[in-house]
Write a structure and sequence with these properties.
431 residues; mainly alpha; Growth Hormone, Chain: A; globular
């Protein structure tokens, strides 16, 4: 749908177009659960049993996909600032859906790497940039609330997708599972992103947060040059990387995201090895995503009166508690407790960390700045599953990797407490 038709649609709607953008983002968030490690974890046991792959070999695909995303993200971020999330998000959904469907026909480890790495790269790079770029551009004062709604949609997908995968694997086999997951991704995520997404409210003569624009407001003539409101931070990427805030947030990212990805991928296999049934394991996995939804939604309301650094530090300690609890888990209640800690911690990280980047550095170069930060994030995510897989294959259990993840989480909490709002360059009011 071209810009003129979208402008007419925005004028005809009984509500501000930012709510349409948030709806589109929510659909994309649900579809993003397709290649997530929580969904992949349901396929670990049947695929390794059929092909004889080691956990390290399987985990390597997650890691390689993350490395590819790390390489691509800075370039995608710059493109996002110039052209907006339509092509970024629409392309991510399309590539993900097709490659997940193709996974249903693989016959070798090479085939698995080829298709899953593309899906994982899309998940870690374009999906993340498109979703958070849209939320950050269309919401400022209500950014935390909008981010919490998007996170709720994403965790809803993470609750549903593993159960769909588990049910299909049990009844029809893992190949059917991948095919159906891929179809769901395409049906839910592609058309809304492609047809309805707009770069920024200023491009349509609107203001962020559902605030009515002045009657004289006109859409920007240039996609690149639409004016930014006074009072918002307007850091360039070069200015941002020279601040302490950038590097303390980057350090927190590098320490926390190996834990997020490592625990997510291997939790199901670990719980089965600890004696839980596949059904109980699926319940525990979905319980952690339910806890994540509750945490992420709550952060939309507490983030503006609880400082960013404290909220991130608490999330790090919750992740440490989850890893330590999993080392002694042998029953379903213990697994649910570990899942609750994990979900509460990672749900907060998923909402608060993107808000921190946008609040501290502004919307104008959000994609470029977030692209650099995302490279750090996806490399960290790539390291977690690989580290866990290597340690499990070397020791026969996940206990050593869980101890490592607990340590990383505590160090991440310390890094969060060292974060300060940037003081050099333009400044915004940060609570």
């Amino acid at each position: 749908m071209n810009a003129t038709r979208l402008q007419r649609l925005a004028q005809a709607l009984p509500f501000h177009y930012c709510w349409m953008i948030l709806t589109v983002v929510c659909f994309a968030c649900v579809s993003r659960a397709g290649p997530a490690v929580a969904t992949l974890s349901m396929f670990v046991t049947p695929m390794t049993a059929e092909f004889g792959w080691s956990r390290t070999e399987l985990s390597g695909a997650v890691s390689l996909g993350g490395v590819l995303a790390a390489i691509a993200s800075p370039m995608i971020g710059v493109y996002l600032d110039r052209q907006g999330p339509r092509y970024v998000l629409g392309g991510a959904v399309l590539a993900t859906g097709i490659t997940l469907m193709l996974l249903s026909g693989i016959q070798s480890l090479l085939g698995f790497y080829l298709f899953y790495c593309i899906a994982r790269m899309s998940w870690a790079g374009p999906y993340d940039l498109g979703i958070h770029g849209a939320v950050s551009n269309w919401f400022v004062a209500r950014r935390a609330w909008a981010a919490s709604i998007a996170q709720l949609a994403q965790t809803s997908g993470l609750i549903v997708m593993p159960f769909i995968a588990f049910t299909l694997i049990e009844s029809q086999g893992w190949r059917t599972g991948w095919m159906v997951i891929g179809i769901i991704v395409l049906v839910v995520g592609f058309l809304p992103s492609w047809l309805l997404m707009v770069r920024r409210p200023e491009d349509m003569g609107l203001k962020p947060d559902g605030i009515a624009a002045p009657a004289s407001a006109e859409p920007a003539r240039s996609v690149v040059g639409s004016p930014m409101p006074a009072g918002e931070p307007q850091f360039t990427r070069g200015e941002a990387v020279r601040t302490r805030a950038f590097w303390t947030l980057a350090l927190f990212t590098a320490l926390i995201y190996p834990v997020q990805a490592g625990l997510s991928l291997h939790q199901a296999a670990h719980l089965i090895e600890r004696g839980l049934t596949p059904a109980a394991t699926a319940m525990a996995v979905s319980f952690f995503t339910l806890s994540s939804a509750i945490s992420g939604f709550s952060c939309g309301f507490i983030n503006r009166w609880l400082s960013i650094k404290v909220a991130l530090a608490v999330s790090g300690m919750l992740l440490a508690g989850s890893a330590l609890t999993m080392t002694v888990t042998t029953t379903l209640p213990e697994a649910l407790l570990a899942g609750a800690f994990f979900g509460l911690g990672i749900g907060a990280v998923h909402v608060i960390l993107p808000i921190a980047w946008a609040d501290y550095f502004g919307r104008r170069s959000f994609g470029a700045i977030r692209g650099v930060a995302l490279s750090i994030q996806v490399v960290a995510q790539a390291a977690g599953p690989l580290l866990s897989g290597i340690l499990r294959d070397a020791t026969g259990t996940y206990l050593v990797s869980l101890a490592c993840f607990a340590t990383l989480s505590v160090l991440g909490a310390v890094a969060a407490l060292l974060t300060r709002a940037p003081v050099a360059g333009p400044k915004a009011a940060i609570n």
